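Fig. S4 source data, part A: sequence.
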Amino acid sequence: MAIHETEERNGKLRTVMKLEPGERVALCRCMRSAEFPFCDGTHKSIEGSAGPAIVEALEAPVEEGATDK
């Protein structure tokens, strides 16, 4: 399960996420999630085109120059 810590640095909030290998999370970009920093789908009910940022911790390091396209 993703572990997150939010701390204040230089007057700004900073969130650090720690994921297990292979773990995948959806992070809020609309800034209105009740589960912030995780996405709870709130973006679907507000104006705009923001959706979640999907972050995945890979099982193995990505080789330089490799793409997933």
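Fig. S4 source data, part B ends here. Strands lie at 3-9, 12-18, 24-27, 53-56.
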